[in-house]
Amino acid sequence: MSGQIVVLDTGPIRELITYRAVHDLGFASLRAQLQFFSAPSAYSKFTKFLSSYRRKVTSPSVVVELYHWIRKTDRTGHNRLWSLVHDEFKGMGMEEDLVTLLEMPLDLVARCGPADISLLILAQRHLPSQPMVVTIEAELAAECFRARINAIQIQEILTQV
Hints:
The chain is α/β, with parallel strands linked by helices. It has one domain: 5'-nuclease (Rossmann fold, 3-Layer(aba) Sandwich), CATH 3.40.50.1010. It has helices at residues 10-25, 40-51, 60-71, 78-92, 106-112, 114-125, 138-146, 154-159, and strands at 5-8, 55-58, 95-96, 131-135, 150-153. Strands 3-2-1-4-5 form a five-stranded parallel beta sheet. The longest helix has 16 residues, at 10-25. The radius of gyration is 15 Å and the shape is globular.
């Protein structure tokens, strides 16, 4: 199912960061926030999936959502969590492409939120590169399918043989 470009939503990135925070940094208090990577094999399967794509892209809106999540964690760990985010982005060669509110259909923004719709627009910009949107949200995946854009929820990746 690999293509040229994967568009990453907040949920999958947050799951990667949470896994690494728990396992690499010993942030045991975040273990309860892991939804999908309860075992190292799930983490490995997901990172292998991501590595099958040459390019990874997200929007600055996703970074803002990560900020809101990190802000709710123990303040003493914020620098280390941001360091993990930075390392993940750098390691993946993550690109951040801006999508402005004026580029987004307002009905979709009202229904799904600007972060999700920014990812839909990014995928539309990269249609010749066979984009795959990766999310945990069924609603974003449904909007992608309506727009004829490939999308997959993280739980689908983990159940693939």
